[in-house]
Every structure is written in C-alpha cells, then in structure tokens.
Write a structure and sequence with these properties.
With 139 residues, this protein is mostly helical. Helix content is 54%, strand content 4%. The protein has a domain of 88 residues. The mean pLDDT is 81. Keywords: Membrane, Transmembrane, Transmembrane helix.
Length: 139
C-alpha cells in the first residue's frame, strides 16, 4: 500500500492538535501555561506529513499528487511553528494582571477639557455609566 495519504493525515493531525489548544486547553491552566505535549504532538504530525511527502516525491510520477502532498506537508509544518510562536512568544508578552484593564474598579476623580474647552469632571457623571476614551496626540 502506498503512503501517499500520510501528508493528509499529518496535516489533519497538526491542525487538530493546534486547534484543540484553542478550543479546550486554553481553559486548563496547567496545559495552557506549559503546552509542551501539544507542541510535541503537532511537530510529530508534521514529521508524518514530511515523511509522506518525501515518499510521494520519490515513488510517484503524478505531478498533482506531488504538489498537493508537498503543500500539505508545508502547512503541517507551518501550523506548529505559528502555534509555538503564538503561545511561547506572543502570549507571554501580555501585561501582568496588575497592569491589565480593571473594569470592575472605580476610577479616581479627574477633570478634563472637552472639545469646547469646558472643564468636565468625573463626578458630573456620578451614578451613570461612562466610557472614557483616551487618544494619543491631539488635533
């Protein structure tokens, strides 16, 4: 039996493993903060896809099958690389909980100028819902 189906399997496994982190394991702190098993599994799936693509390149003369299998192997490698980049690098660059938005806390009193240069204080809106947006720069 030919192994031309291996890139399909590797691609599907790689995608499923990476997606399972987003769908389920994000909510489990122990796995979320240390995703070594998911990373290892997705790289093993990529290795299966690469092995199948190499086998296909050597064993068949069908050009379409070679292109499809090579593309699937490339995508099977790309998923774990992007996953590892996202989880290891980008998610750890997020600010600490202390620096994050704290929507449940009361804002300190302050006074600002509105667009007509009138002073507006936070206490003017006491008891009302208020959304304050700060822009960098000025117009």
């Amino acid at each position: 039996m030919k192994k031309t189906w291996l890139p399909f399997l590797g691609f599907a496994l790689s995608f499923a493993i990476c997606f399972s982190y987003i769908a389920y394991f994000v909510y489990n702190e122990q796995v979320r903060d240390n995703p070594w098993a998911i990373t290892l599994g997705s790289f093993c799936a990529a290795a299966i896809a690469v092995y199948g693509a190499i086998f296909t390149m050597r064993s068949t003369t069908r050009r379409t099958l070679k292109i499809v299998n090579f593309t699937l192997a490339f995508l099977a490698i790309l998923f774990p690389v992007l996953f590892t980049l996202f989880v290891v690098k980008l998610s750890y660059d997020l600010p600490d909980k202390k620096l994050a938005l704290q929507g449940d806390k009361v804002a300190p009193a302050f006074t600002l100028l509105d667009s007509q240069k009138r002073k507006v204080s936070l206490k003017d809106f006491s008891g009302k819902n208020l959304l304050v947006v700060f822009y960098r720069g000025h117009w």
